[in-house]
TrEMBL record:
This is 3-oxoacyl-ACP reductase. The keyword Oxidoreductase applies. Transmembrane segments: none annotated. Belongs to the short-chain dehydrogenases/reductases (SDR) family. PROSITE patterns: ADH_SHORT. The keyword Cell division does not apply. InterPro entries: KR_dom, NAD(P)-bd_dom_sf, Peroxisomal_Beta-Oxidation, Sc_DH/Rdtase_CS, SDR_fam.
Length: 311
């Protein structure tokens, strides 16, 4: 039990990926704070309910593990503070933070309202920041008190939408790109304290992805479902564990039977001028031929992700 004695917080853990991740961390021995706001709509609509988080916590306890349910909106700064404090007060410390909570409000960019933009950025990006901020402060204080590194793991949930664009999700794609930036910045800041921060881009059939993966047939009984959330959770368990101590600031694509490490952006081509500054005419002569023959809607990232999906 690689996580025996450790304490984990999993946000958005009442259903789907979060639930599978909470169960996996508990299976590995961790005490789990199961956070969920419990709203029935994937767009964040409906009345908040403690039932989803309570059900997952009960499932963990029935299997012999330790779990506590937490009802709360992690996009609220003080709620995030209270979530970290609950872990420390209940189990003595916080060791693992898995940020998974999110909502969808899809719309083309020319039709999106300010509220649809703000709400998705608030839950995904601000929600990830809020919990990270208080977990990071907890680990820094522990490290300074002992004069030694501590055990800390952050696993954030991004998406391939930040790479490929996702035409009908400008708010979601922007939030998921921001989460990658938050992850790499956090990894750089907290590494000296013994804390790692990594991001996953999962492919899984949940209520959040029913529009994306709904066309994929659900396998019959006894057949492998490559889009089951349970195929994502083992990577989360690994990144939360001691074996991943040197894995920091990385982004992974993960689904049934595949884990892909995403490389940092690299320079595809470089254009230089013999002068101090390019002129318009020189840029036209250098750049226009490079993009000749490409339709405006084509981009390398989208093609690459499509190839990954087909494989």
């Amino acid at each position: 039990m690689a996580l025996h004695g450790r304490t984990a917080v999993v946000t958005g853990a009442g259903r789907g990926l979060g639930r599978a991740e909470a169960l996996e961390l508990a299976r590995l021995g961790a005490n789990v704070i199961v956070n969920d706001y419990g709203q029935p709509g994937r767009d964040g609509s409906g009345t908040a309910s403690a039932a989803p988080a309570e059900a997952v916590a009960a499932e963990i306890r029935a299997a012999g593990g330790q779990a506590t349910a937490h009802l709360g909106d992690v996009a609220d700064f003080e709620t995030a503070r209270g979530l970290v404090e609950l872990a420390v007060d209940t189990y003595g410390a916080l060791d693992i933070l898995v940020n998974n909570a999110g909502i969808l409000r899809d719309r083309m960019v020319f039709s999106m309202t300010e509220g649809e933009w703000d709400s998705v950025l608030r839950v995904h990006l601000k929600g990830h920041f809020n919990t990270t901020r208080f977990a990071a402060a907890h680990w820094r204080e522990r490290s300074k008190a002992t004069g030694a590194p501590v055990y800390g793991r952050i696993v954030n949930t991004s998406s391939e939408a930040f790479l490929a664009g996702s035409a009908g999700q400008p708010n979601y794609a922007a939030a998921k790109g921001g989460i990658v930036g938050l992850t790499t910045s956090t990894a750089a800041a907290l590494g000296k304290y013994g804390v790692t921060a990594n991001a996953i881009c999962p492919r899984a059939r949940t209520r959040m992805t029913e529009d994306v993966f709904g066309a994929f047939a659900v396998p019959g009984e006894g057949e492998l479902d490559a889009l089951a959330p349970e195929h994502v959770s083992p990577l989360v368990g690994y990144l939360a564990g001691p074996a991943a101590a040197r894995v920091n600031g990385q982004v992974f694509v993960v689904h049934g039977g595949m884990v892909a490490l995403v490389d940092r952006p690299r320079v595809a081509a470089q254009f230089d001028t013999a002068k101090d500054v390019f002129t318009y005419e020189e840029l036209d002569a250098a750049l226009t031929p490079y993009f000749e023959g490409r339709a405006p809607h084509e981009n390398f990232a989208a093609t690459e992700i499509l190839a990954l999906k087909k494989s």
